[in-house]
Amino acid sequence: MNRRFRGESVHKVDGKGRVSIPASFRRVLEEGDPDWVNGAQPKVILVYGLPGASCVEGYSVRGIDELDDRVSRMPMFSRTRKALERMLNTRSVYAQVEDNGRIVLSPKLREIIGVGEAVFAGMGDRFQIWDPDAYSADNQGLDEWIEAQGEDGSPLLELDKEYSEA
After folding, report:
1. What is the pLDDT of residue 164?
2. Number of other residues whose CB lies within 10 A of the CB of residue 33
3. Whether residue 163 has pLDDT greater than 80
């Protein structure tokens, strides 16, 4: 995938759970949907109930396939694999982007995000959808954590380390 989910924006969520996906996010979803053709609308996979997350995570078809491939390389009956499969497959739904760029959030997803407004936050290979107050609190916690790291503990220093793909 060449394009990445970047930026943040606030969108209205109506009483039926309809919300517009940012246009730039739709381009990433199009590129990441192997069945997408010009003039059609891409699919998005929405994952909810991840540990420690007060948001819903959105993936392109290729993005979730890459995660599934990583999970499938784990030992078939391991507890970790079972937990990951439950988190990524059982607690997820496909959503079709409508012609007007909106998706419909199920009642389960609206419990997490709420109705009124939602913040879309780009996370590179995925995006998150937050209730604005929860997003603000999460950002504040992240800022405090970064500040507590001090100058020598900047997360940017992690970019110098080598990480291998499993």
Report:
1. 62
2. 19
3. no
